[in-house]
Amino acid sequence: MNIKGLLFALLGFAMFSVHDVVVKYLGGTYSPVQIIFFAGLFSFPLLTFVLMSDPTRDNLRPVHPWWVLLRVLTSLGAGLMAFYAFSVLPLAQTYTLLFVAPLLITVLAIPVLGERVGLHRWAAVIVGLAGVIVVLRPGAQDLTLGHAAGLGSAACNALASIVVRKIGQDERPVVLMLYPLAGNFLLMGSALPFVYVAMPVVDLGALGVIAVLGFAASMCVIAAYRFGEAAIVAPMQYSQILWASVFGFLLFGESLDRPTFYGAGLIILSGLYIVYRESRGGKSSTTPVLRNRSRGYSPGSIRTSTFLRRWKTD
Question: At residue 314, does pLDDT exceed 50?
């Protein structure tokens, strides 16, 4: 069963990588606000079928409105900053910064979820943050808004994931998905007139590709977690760095420099070690990283953990 889950995970994260290539292509011409707004708009028909499958008869009022609002704002922030980072930084470097999210989830789980983090996981967090310094090389290169956006997206994604872990047992999946979509229409839509650039049919089609890939990749990741253990499936997200290196070289003339390579290695190893420690059980009661099963910055992605939980109770 783990082999099946592994293959679904690799396929899903490969699709997400192609998704990000299209984002980078469009980011050379259009604002992230415009890309996210239309990607979310084109994703809505696909997500509607998922929302309609919720058998619960109830209203759409959130049980925890302020936590849901925080989830909406952090999800939109994660997407906005990630899309900007993809547009101005090399693909591999952007992924490396986004991979900081599991480290931040580990830290945020302490005050929000009451998680106890032992010496081993703290050491992994420190090693991962050292990897960030290696990648950024303060003093040796100019730090840009793109670097800040990559780290900001990781922070927003981590906080959004922690919020879902805190309220996910109480809130319906439809609420956790519908409100970020509504927030996208309201907030990004209100900013759209200030950044809008007319789009030819080809680029509108590319936005549709983003929506389809985000949805299809999410379904693959959901299938991966249904058929495989989380400790096996979760590390497969790091396969995106390989795709980024290939696509970056072939399509954008990018190369993976040594500091990014070494820093990515430290960040990935620290993330893998955190997953290993959580999978062993021990003092970890909430396993916040293993339960972070969604890609928070893609408008068409599906909140994986909530649907897995619902299927287990069917």
Answer: no
